Each structure stands twice: as C-alpha cells, then as structure tokens.
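Researcher: For the record, we're logging two predictions in this thread. I'll number them. Prediction 1 follows.
Model: Prediction 1, sequence and structure:
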Amino acid sequence: MLGTVKILGTGCPRCQETKRLVLKALSELQLNANVQEVKDPKEIARHGVMLTPAIIINNELVSQGRIPTYEEVKKWLLDRVSKE
C-alpha cells in the first residue's frame, strides 16, 4: 500500500480533474492508497497550501495551484512507493 494521498481543493472542476488523474494513475499502476479529499478551506490552509488544486502524498506536498500532467502524477506515486 502506498499510504495516504490527499487532494486539496474546494471541489471545483480543476480539483475534480486532479482527483480523476490521481485515481486513474493509482488504478493503472495497481497501487492501493487511502485517497482523501480535503475541501475545508481552514484544513487546506493548515497544510500550508495557498493555491488549489494541491496533492499531498504521505504528508509531502508535491503539487499546488495547477492541474498536473498524468505522467507527473504517475512519477510522484512511483517515487513514493520506492521510498517505502
């Protein structure tokens, strides 16, 4: 199992697209992870995130303020698996 992947954002279309990319990559790579959506602005700010969408993998902020490419998401996930 990979651990925890948090998608931070208010639920806007950009945030939903980011979530879709993460779920697609997890499925393609056959990785299990605890995927959480963080929509509360106060909770988002507690993570130090000022721009959404944002992705946190195992407590490490890997992206914020943009929709990442699918290839970036896959690389981030694979990099975190190899660190375990």
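Researcher: Logged. Prediction 2.
Model: Prediction 2, sequence and structure:
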Amino acid sequence: MENKPGDDFETAIRPTLSVSNGIAAVEFYKKAFNAAELMRVEAPDGAIVAELSINGARFFVADGPEAEYSALEKAGSIPIRMGLIVANPDAFAASAIAAGATEVYPVADQDYGYRLGHIIDPYGHHWEICRPL
C-alpha cells in the first residue's frame, strides 16, 4: 500500500485506553504522570473521550461499555501494556503508586539494557515505566 501524505503530515499511533469512568481516569493520569489534557469531548450521558500528553507522548482515554470494562478492571485483565519511556522512571513510578497504581515490580536496572518497573493503574492497564541504560 502506498501512502503519500503531504510533507508536513506525521504518521503516528495513538493508543486509546478504554475505561469505565473516563473523568476519573483523566484525573488519575494527570496526578500520576503529570499528564496534560489536550482535548475532551463529552457525551450527554457523561461519557468522555480525552486526548492526553505525557511529555509530548499522546494517547486517548475513552469510556467503554460499563459492564464489559468494569469486569475486566476488577479481574486486572485488560489486554494492553503501555511502555512509558521517561528520563526518570523512578519518579514517574513513585508518583503513579502514590496516585493509586499497584506496583508489580519496582524500577530497577534490567539485564536487557533498561531501567524499568511495572505498575497497574486503577483501570487495569499495565505500564512499564523505563529508560534505556
């Protein structure tokens, strides 16, 4: 497939984290990772889609079907793992844990060349917070 966008067009992948309470999730990511809210669209029923940025790394948060995502969150089995590469993974992991994330394993130097730790946010999403050594 050939793709010839204009010279000023940037191809990007922006993950969307599906949650059962988008407003609370946005507030968690702001507190945990100092995320900036770039955009928010709110439906009449209160469901939202928001675009966030962590030091320029952008992603979306969106309310999903309540019953489906509530069950997945409780089981801790939402099938996504986010890699957050930052200059100070220790500080980012500590901030996320203080905001309510669960530590799977602490940030430490790994044999494969990263300083990396693993947390699960209150919505069941796994985050590997790291930087290359």
